[in-house]
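Final report, closing paragraph on structural work. Over the funding period we assembled a curated collection of sequence-structure pairs, and we close with a single example.
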Amino acid sequence: MKLLKVHGSSNTFYLFEALYDNEVNYVQLTKWLCDKSNEGGADGLLLVLPSQIADAKMRVINADGSEASMCGNGLRCVARYICEKLDIEEAVIETMHANLHVKKAQSIFEELPTYAVEISPVSFDLNTLPMHYDDKNQIRHENLAKFSDDILFTAVSVPNPHLVGIVQSSHIMDTTHQQQLASYLNGKNDICPDGVNVSYVYPISEHEIFVRTYERGVGFTNACGTAMTASALIANVENYVSNQVVTVYNPGGFVQCSVQMCENQYELLLIGNATIIGYYEVESKADKFEFINCFLTIEPLQYEKCNIYVKEKLGQYN
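Its predicted structure, as stored:
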């Protein structure tokens, strides 16, 4: 099997183009690929499959073997793969809940390969996450006594489920509270039976926020694309930022998120790098796997310059 290792905002994946959904045992393959003892591991596997209704279909397998309905950072990498393969500037990618438009974009930092991807659909209804909290139908910028007495939370699906808290910098510097809450909500519980991505957001300026995310099925991650987009949406709706385009910093770098309202619907774009780390060959025998070849690119060096820039600007939050 020939795979790419890629990353969006240091959210790292292997990418494999398959002919059909059960070509190999993808859960077992993903767990093996994501093991840190194997070439440093990864956060998940991106499957690129044929589609009858779009240019390609994307499936996302998390490191623990669970399947995500969407992944914004991964979608950028799939967008680049498909656009370069088909020699086009724009494409449509089929995901679990929507067909999403993607396109090549102007670089956000020097010569970084950059893609913009649609994040949709957006819903504040708790049954779309799903989430059960008292008798509420929505949670919009509210203090939730069961969670915290000083954090304002919003629940939103995009379509991945997210709980977004606006916090002071102390909750960014010390992750203890976020760790405890996210671990509870992603364990056996009655509030979020399927788990939830938990993001703490610190507004920096009228057009900048910092986001740290505990990702369902992964844990604390360098970046989660849908979480960054959901966080930019909440910061915009609740007037913590005034620009339609929000710069979102995270432990893995930064992206830009465009938030617009059109015909009573939010139109969200996630804009960021799509970096190819290397090309790999894996041999499969009886559901056991082995790396047999590897070719690394220089693209991670380009992104490291971006990381240095972010650390110099916001090192205290990383």
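Residues 71 and 225 are 6 Å apart (CA to CA). The radius of gyration is 19 Å. We thank the funder for supporting this effort.
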